[in-house]
C-alpha cells in the first residue's frame, strides 16, 4: 500500500467497525488534496468515448495512480481502484447488452416474457463476463499492490431482474406470476455467488481480505455492498415476500455486508432490514435535493440501526468544514463513536489535518 501510511491500523479499525465495537474516535474517510504531488505525474490522454471511459483499464489505472500521487489518504481512507461496467453488471453476464454513457452504463432489456426468467444460467463464455474478468486481472497487475482493486458493483435480486426485464414489466410479473419471480430471485441468489466468488478470487489480498467499489469499505474475507433500489416501487409486505430472504442468504455467505438504503422511498423497508441478523451495517443515501447525512431528520433511521446492533455509514457534504464538524459532533453525541463511519468531502491538507486533530481530541 504505497500511498497509505497507516494501513495496518486502518484494517484493525475496520475490524472493529464491522462488529460495532471500534475504539477511540469514529471511523472517518478523509481525502486531502496534496499541496505538492507525491511523485511526478504521468501524461495520460483521457478516453475519447464513453465505452473507452469504462473499459480502458490501462488509461484508467494511470489516471488513478495520478490521483493517488495528488491526494493524501487520511484516517480510514485508503486507495482503491474500481473497474465497473455500470451498476449491475450481473445483468451483462446474463445476456444484457450495455449502453455506455459518460456517467454510467445502462443495460438493454433482454427478457421479453416472464417465462424466459427460467433460462437464467451461468455462462462462462459470455463475452462481457470474460472481458470484465480480463479487465480486473489486468488492473490487479497494474496496481503493483500499491492500491487495492475493488470487487465491482454486480448487484443482486430484483434490481437485476428489472434490468433484464424492465421495471414496469417486472411489476406486472410480480402481481401476475409471483411464484415465477420468487423462483427467479432464488436462482439469482445462486448465480450471484458464482460470479462474486470468481471476482473475489481475482482481487482478494494475501490474507483473504477484499474491498468493494464506490463505498470505501474493506473487510477480512468476502465484503460487499448489497441493495434493492427497486424496493422504492414495492410495499413492505412485498419486500418481505420477494427480497428479505434473498438478502438474508446473501449476508450469511458474506463475511461483511453493508446495505445501501437509497432515498426516502426506501425507508419503509428499514424494519425488515433490521430483522436480518446477519446484516452488519447500513449506508444511508439521502436522495437528490435532501440534506446530508448529519441532518436530524435522519435520526429515526440511525436510531433503529444502532438499536439493532448494526453499524452506520454516514456521508456529510453540506456546507463547509465548520458545518461538517458540527454535524459530525451531533452524531457522535447522540450515537457515540462505536459503529460509526463518517464520510467527508475532499478537502485541502490544512482542513483535513484540522478535522482529524479535532476528532482525535474530542470524539472518544
Short description:
By secondary structure, the chain is an alpha/beta fold.
Essential attributes:
single chain; 364 residues; TIM Barrel; 8-stranded mixed sheet; two-stranded parallel sheet
What does this structure look like?
This protein is of the alpha/beta class. It has a single domain (7-362), classed as TIM Barrel (Alpha-Beta Barrel). Helix content is 44%, strand content 16%. It has helices at 7-18, 50-55, 57-70, 90-93, 127-143, 157-165, 167-176, 178-203, 236-253, 270-274, 299-307, 321-335, 349-362, and strands at residues 27-33, 71-75, 80-81, 97-100, 105-108, 148-149, 210-212, 217-219, 223-227, 256-262, 281-285, 311-315, 340-343, 347-348. Strands 1, 2, 9, 10, 11, 12, 13 and 14 form an 8-stranded mixed beta sheet that branches. Strands 3-6 form a two-stranded parallel sheet. Strands 4-5 form a two-stranded antiparallel ribbon. Strand 4 (97-100) and strand 5 (105-108) form a beta hairpin. Helix 8 (178-203) runs parallel beside helix 9 (236-253).
Amino acid at each position: 500500500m504505497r500511498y497509505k501510511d497507516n494501513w495496518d491500523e486502518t484494517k484493525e479499525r475496520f475490524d472493529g467497525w464491522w462488529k460495532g465495537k471500534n475504539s477511540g474516535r469514529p471511523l472517518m474517510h478523509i481525502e486531502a488534496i496534496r499541496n505538492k504531488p507525491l511523485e511526478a505525474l504521468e501524461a495520460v490522454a483521457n478516453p475519447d468515448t464513453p465505452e473507452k471511459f469504462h473499459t480502458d483499464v490501462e488509461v484508467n489505472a494511470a489516471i488513478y495512480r495520478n490521483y493517488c500521487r495528488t491526494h493524501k489518504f487520511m484516517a480510514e481512507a485508503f486507495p482503491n481502484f474500481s473497474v465497473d461496467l455500470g451498476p449491475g453488471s450481473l445483468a451483462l453476464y446474463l445476456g444484457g447488452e450495455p449502453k455506455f454513457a459518460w456517467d454510467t452504463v445502462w443495460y438493454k432489456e433482454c427478457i421479453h416474457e416472464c417465462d424466459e426468467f427460467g433460462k437464467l444460467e451461468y455462462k462462462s463464455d459470455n463475452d462481457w463476463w470474460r472481458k470484465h474478468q480480463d479487465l480486473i486481472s489486468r488492473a490487479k497487475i497494474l496496481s503493483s499492490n500499491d492500491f487495492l482493486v475493488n470487487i465491482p458493483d454486480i448487484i443482486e435480486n430484483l434490481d437485476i431482474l428489472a434490468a433484464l426485464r424492465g421495471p414496469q414489466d417486472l411489476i406486472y410479473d410480480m402481481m401476475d406470476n409471483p411464484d415465477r419471480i420468487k423462483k427467479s430471485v432464488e436462482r439469482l441468489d445462486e448465480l450471484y455467488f458464482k460470479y462474486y466468488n470468481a471476482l473475489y478470487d481475482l482481487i482478494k489480498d494475501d490474507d483473504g481480505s477484499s474491498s468493494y467499489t464506490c463505498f470505501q469499505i474493506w473487510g477480512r474475507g468476502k465484503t460487499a455492498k448489497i441493495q434493492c433500489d427497486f424496493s422504492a416501487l414495492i410495499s413492505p409486505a412485498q419486500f418481505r415476500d420477494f427480497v428479505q430472504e434473498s438478502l438474508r442468504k446473501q449476508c450469511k455467505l458474506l463475511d461483511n455486508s453493508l446495505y445501501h438504503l437509497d432515498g426516502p422511498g426506501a425507508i419503509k423497508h428499514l424494519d425488515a432490514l433490521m430483522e436480518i441478523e446477519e446484516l452488519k451495517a447500513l449506508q444511508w443515501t439521502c436522495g437528490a435535493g435532501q440534506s446530508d447525512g448529519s441532518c436530524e431528520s435522519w435520526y429515526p433511521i440511525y436510531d433503529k440501526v444502532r438499536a439493532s446492533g448494526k453499524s452506520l455509514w454516514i456521508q456529510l457534504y453540506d456546507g463547509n468544514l465548520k458545518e461538517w464538524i458540527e454535524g459530525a459532533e451531533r452524531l457522535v453525541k447522540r450515537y457515540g463513536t462505536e459503529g460509526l463511519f463518517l464520510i467527508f468531502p475532499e478537502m485541502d491538507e490544512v482542513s483535513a489535518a484540522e478535522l482529524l486533530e479535532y476528532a482525535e481530541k474530542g470524539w472518544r
